[in-house]
Write a structure and sequence with these properties.
This protein has 13 helices and 14 strands. It is globular and about 60 Å long. The strands form four sheets. Strands 3-2-1-4-5-6-11 form a seven-stranded parallel sheet, with helices on both faces. A three-stranded mixed sheet has the order 12-9-14. A two-stranded parallel ribbon has the order 7-10. It is an alpha/beta fold and 333 residues long. The chain has a domain of 218 residues: 3-Layer(aba) Sandwich (Rossmann fold). The longest helix has 20 residues.
């Protein structure tokens, strides 16, 4: 099968490219001129340079493909406009080009739990609930889903929503937590309980492939059809996660310190100011602080299990063991 992959130079996309090649698929990676592609070339992936904002090169990139795995996305930005441009408008451009093909390929959109919004403790999110994103990032990912829906009558489309993704290759999400783990002290945003769903990158990519093979596609009269949460089926408290990570690092039981939420807001504001002065974009900002203030980011993979046969290989403990082992090979843990 010929597969077009966006986001192949990133964490999830890089691991997905490796899995696709291992399964014998022909992979074409749609990348920007500035993307680092050495790892993709070593896998034997064909590189095509295109621009999902202007549309330059996109029509050429999609020729002859049977499946498009759209993993590219913007995870940090200064403004809502930047998020929407990087997530929603890029998805709309891609879907519009696919819709013009004589035989449009199947489109798999890797979205996020943030598009659905937070949950309540003991009540994980399901696909049939109305979306209520609380952050600029979440609203932009929901807008990306809606952009894909605009063309779903012509392009068979499936949406996969992961929660917190971790695993080998992650150089953004887990390293700060590993740094805390080495000290034996973890910080928790807010004074109350916090619960989370997690998914190992290998399990997410298995879900993306299963969605391409067996997922129901979006339809106009049922807004939840064709949407799947992909996660470890167990929700975890923040304390559970900290204990599991410390154990994987070979440390004793950690200390978890609750930090008032106003400290998170202040930290986010300070990080924003610092990044503006340095001309960079910080992953920590007031928008991220708003996400951290929620009591639960949990979801149920029951539909994915039933409809596409999703069965995660990694629960949290073995998943963190696998991940920390990789970090050690890289000198990062």
């Amino acid at each position: 099968m010929k597969v077009l992959l966006t986001g192949g130079s990133g964490f999830v996309g890089g691991q997905l490219a490796s899995l696709l090649v291992a399964r014998g698929h022909e992979v074409v990676a749609l990348v920007r001129r500035s993307s680092k592609v050495d790892a993709l070339k070593q896998l034997g992936v064909r590189i095509t340079v295109a621009d999902l904002h202007t549309g330059d090169g996109v029509n050429e990139a999609v020729q002859g493909v049977e499946v498009v795995q759209h993993v590219a996305g913007l995870t940090k930005a200064r403004s809502e406009e930047d998020y929407l441009r990087g997530n929603a408008e890029a998805t709309r451009m891609l879907a519009s080009v696919l819709a013009r093909q004589k035989r449009p390929p199947r489109l798999i959109v890797c979205s996020s739990l943030a598009a659905a919004g937070p949950a309540r403790i003991g009540k994980p999110r399901t696909e049939t609930e109305r979306e209520a994103p609380v952050s600029m990032y979440g609203r932009s990912k929901l807008a990306a889903e809606q952009a894909a829906r605009e063309f779903a009558d012509r392009v068979p489309t499936v949406i996969v929503r992961p929660p917190f993704v971790y695993g080998p290759g992650d150089l953004t999400n887990l390293p700060p937590l590993i740094a805390m783990g080495k000290t034996g002290v973890y910080l928790k945003a807010g004074m109350g309980p916090k619960h989370f769903s997690f998914v190992h990158v290998d399990d997410l990519n298995q879900a993306l492939l299963a969605a391409a093979e067996r997922g129901k596609t979006l339809v106009r009269d049922d807004p939840s059809q064709g949407v799947y949460f992909a996660s470890d089926p167990n929700p975890y408290s923040w304390e559970d996660f900290c204990i599991s990570l410390s154990r994987a690092l070979g440390r004793g039981k950690p200390k978890v310190i609750s930090v008032p939420e106003f400290v998170g807001w202040a930290t986010g504001a300070g990080a924003e100011l610092g990044s503006r002065l340095l001309g960079t974009v910080s992953i920590m900002n007031r928008d991220k602080a708003k996400e951290m203030a929620q009591e639960a980011w949990t979801c149920s993979p029951a539909r994915a299990a039933e409809e596409i046969g999703f069965k995660p290989e990694y629960l949290l403990d073995p998943g963190l063991d696998n991940t920390v082992a990789w970090y050690r090979t890289q000198g990062l843990a």
